Amino acid sequence: MPQEARSKVGGWPLATAIAVVLVFLFFVREILLPFIIAAAIAFILTPAVDYVHRRSGLRRWIVAASIFIVFVGGFGLLTYWVGGLILRDIVEITRQFPQLLHRMINQLAHLSSALTEQSIDANAVTKEVMADLAAFFSGGMGLKFAGYGVAAIFGTILMLVLLVYFLLSGKQVAAGVFWLIPPEYRAGMESIARKVLPMLWRYFVGLIAVISYTTFVAWIGFAVVFHLPHAPVLSIAVGLLELIPVIGPAVSLGVVGLTAVQQTTTLGLVGLAAFAIALRLSIDQIVGPLVLGKAAQLHPVVIIFAFLSGAALFGIIGLILAVPVAAAIKIVVTMYYAEPVKDQSPRGGSGPTRLKPV
């Protein structure tokens, strides 16, 4: 008996299925971070695995395992070196925090007195802030931070295990996800994937390059040129803030500005401000466009909305994926609006037309 032909899946059932998946991901968002990070790293490293596999003729699992070992070893050495610098600076900052806080409040008090002619007791404000911080950390926040540390350790271990699986069989996992798409939509999804995937790869690799460049140049400026205290921590903070579009660079400029205020000479203050502006311009005008290209360029308003929406819905995962998801949506909409449009007028008109991509 011949099998009946399957009816085409309509738009509303498909939209409902996508909505259900998004709602499910929203409720399990707390466990998604290791999966997202492992998938992103595997996505970046897979072209290298494929290239070495083709050129060497070795089994793919051997190549994938070798690249995994190299990646983990390099990342471990970098973490050990940077972690030692950060730990040393954190211990020093913790020891000197009351003096640093008093100095900053005293400078702000002098600035406020000059502007408003109202005096502020820096000693009283410092004692009040220190008392509030002591009450904050004594109210169970210490145990909470310890819990975050344990969760981070287990999350890192899970991420490494998932990275092995994604490097070995990531293509099979992607093929399985693609198989869930109804057959009548697969050709369109293949066309979209051919445009979206290169953009995503370039975005993630470019973002790593921008963060590395920012951290390295900031470290040279802060440590070698201006001899700032705690330069490694400040450099890494400025570099990691590049993960947050638009808002992150503004915060990093504010952090550098607070550091510049603590300079004892006018020349040091002006020099550090000029260095921060030059670093920002080099990222925005040279490094960013060069390594990220035009694929992920969006209007700043769109970036801010996507960033805040992603953070509100999915937390840190939303921070990581906000811009690439928004850029992917832009590509999909551009392709959809560029499709030929059938003329449905009664007289037939002059045939199909093509809309200009946005």
Q: Gist?
A:
With 358 residues, this protein is an all-alpha fold.
Number of strands: 2
Total individual domains: 2
The proportion of residues in beta strands is: under 5%
Structural class comes to mainly alpha
Radius of gyration: 26 Å
Euclidean distance between termini CA atoms:
50 Å
Give the biggest beta sheet. Answer: 2 strands, antiparallel
Give, in order, the helices and strands.
HHHHHHHHHHEE
Helix content: over 70%
Low-confidence runs: 348-358
| Individual helix count | 10
Average pLDDT, all residues: 78
Characterize the overall form.
elongated
Lateral arrangement of strands in the main beta sheet = 1-2
Question: Your description of this structure?
Answer:
There is one protein chain. This protein has helices at residues 11-27, 33-56, 60-116, 122-179, 183-225, 231-240, 247-261, 266-292, 300-314, 316-337; strands at 340-341, 353-354. The chain is mostly helical. It is elongated, with a radius of gyration of 26 Å. It starts with 10 loop residues before the first helix and ends with a strand.
Keywords:
two-stranded antiparallel sheet; disordered C terminus; 2 strands; 358 residues; mainly alpha; 2 domains; 80% helix
Fold topology:
Blueprint: H1 11-27, H2 33-56, H3 60-116, H4 122-179, H5 183-225, H6 231-240, H7 247-261, H8 266-292, H9 300-314, H10 316-337, E1 340-341, E2 353-354
Antiparallel strand pairs: 1-2
Helix pairs in contact: 2-3, 2-4, 3-4, 5-6, 5-8, 5-10, 6-7, 7-8, 9-10
